[in-house]
Automatic annotation (TrEMBL):
Example GO biological process: protein maturation
Keyword Cytoplasm: no
Domain MIP18 family-like: from-to ranges: 39-114
Domain of life: Eukaryota
Organism: Polarella glacialis (Dinoflagellate)
Family of the protein in this entry: Belongs to the MIP18 family.
Annotated protein name in UniProt: MIP18 family-like domain-containing protein
Swiss-Prot/TrEMBL keywords: Chromosome partition
UniProt-listed Pfam families: FeS_assembly_P (PF01883)
Amino acid sequence: MGDDNPNPVVSAAVGPTLAFRSMQALMEEDDSQDPLTVQEVYESLRHLSDPEHPELSLEQLKVVNQGHVKIDGHTVFIQFTPTVPTCSVATLIGLTIKAKMLRSLPHQYKVDVEINPGSHNQEDQVNKQLNDKERVAAALENPALCNLINNGISGTDRPDFALLLA
């Protein structure tokens, strides 16, 4: 180890120090926080994998788009469009979207996911399943379904760095 700089100049901390906040305080709602934006929600969804075509994202297949995400207070509304009206995995796609949002958003947000009106033959049945808390909870506890959902979510956190600079 060399002594290239035996007497380095050490400067005092210049700027404000951050106050310690517990994890609980960080998870609680804070009115001074920036409000959640549609673009932030969409950024969380766009890279989710399609169950039938795992190499393609829901954005690439036009299953999700930013225009179908709405935020009203503490409720996030997301509509999705299955690739075909007879899509057999529409409920699984909806569950994947819902699971991703439940895992990504602070707990004070409610998430409503449904099929874009007129885009699926069994729209009413799928929407009923996706908005039934007990059915969703049971599905998220089912090991086989949970594995499929986790596969759809895995590796999808690819933030748009322009959002961080906005």
